[in-house]
């Protein structure tokens, strides 16, 4: 097992813009690359809990706690516990309708009792691809790697139903899905039920019987490297991100827009970045270039970011509406995207109220005062009074990028301002820009809203075409990455996290109104 810790964050007495790095420019009174920046009237400083990511793979740092085996209906008494390859199929041999499934288990005893899990991923090396998806479920019966077969769980104990298909053999809830259409390495991010199941294993180790990867209907088989594979990096790996006991973890919101683009590779880099960043994902629009078609979501967005889909809260961009009714977007996300005739909705995250709006105003009846969306927004804010409120949509009210300011969303900003909201997140311009607190008209004010433009999710970046406005606190057009917000009960910490190989960042702490 290997452990990696995020570096401990120092106590921030002032908002610090780390800007003496490639592509960053910071201007304005009280700020600059030479020192700290007064970007908020009140600041809250406190130490953050440090999430730990534990990775479990045989042969890495002495770990040898993986058990895996394949069960074959066609060879019901054969045990394959020492094989270098694992198999899953719903029709083996072809035309027989007989099943093959794979069992996987990791010893998690090194995770301290009382830890709180945040995310779990499973990484495998696919050596024979399949057009079909295979489901992960939790096993609920003890089995032995050296003696398990299609008929028996151990040398002396049978499955309730052959192939571990009985109600006491496995839980029916899907914890994740593996779809590997080409040979390569794949990572499955477990859904909420999956994280809860692994949490149960940490809390009660005797309940850890591992996973079964199977499908009874698939006709295209899947081959995986096992824990006995000659190449250590090909062996199955489980990665668990958790908060150690005794720490208090406030929720994290990760945000970026302008993401999936088959013409670039940076969307893959930002997707890889998310593998190590637990938290809810706020998607800021323009997710599948160029037109948000179903094919572009499948080919240009899903391979880079799709494994994190279960934790996404999206908003549409203008490119999504290049397809009539944003059908590709709503088809991909389903209920996660809200009512397809509106595209706006809200949710709570910890002590924060989060509002997701649709800035494609002409598609939803406008954004003006009195429009359906603006009326709904005011009603939603009145019904959800919180100390801290955040909103996000695609088109920025303020931007010094090539698209510039967008006044059509000013009524939405004003409604949020009237309710005492704290943060607005946007995309659209392909850069990163943090703005000082200001009102809907663009006047700097201590009680104003802080806006972030985070169009750095993966598509090509664009240079700034204007000088930096006075209210623009810091900007860069040379770095891809995501904005990480840690949402405390009455304050927030922000940090721009760049992709591997880039070093620009921007971090600080702000108080809610």
UniProtKB/TrEMBL annotation:
Keywords: Signal. It comes from the Bacteria. Gene3D superfamilies: 3.60.21.10. InterPro entries: Calcineurin-like_PHP, Metallo-depent_PP-like, PAPs-like. PROSITE patterns: PROKAR_LIPOPROTEIN. The keyword Thylakoid does not apply. This is DNRLRE domain-containing protein. Pfam families: Metallophos. PANTHER family: ACID PHOSPHATASE RELATED, PURPLE ACID PHOSPHATASE. Residues 150-159 have a biased composition (Polar residues). Residues 254-432 form the Calcineurin-like phosphoesterase domain. Residues 1-28 form the signal peptide. Coiled coil: none annotated. One of its GO terms (molecular function) is acid phosphatase activity. Residues 150-171 are annotated as: Disordered.
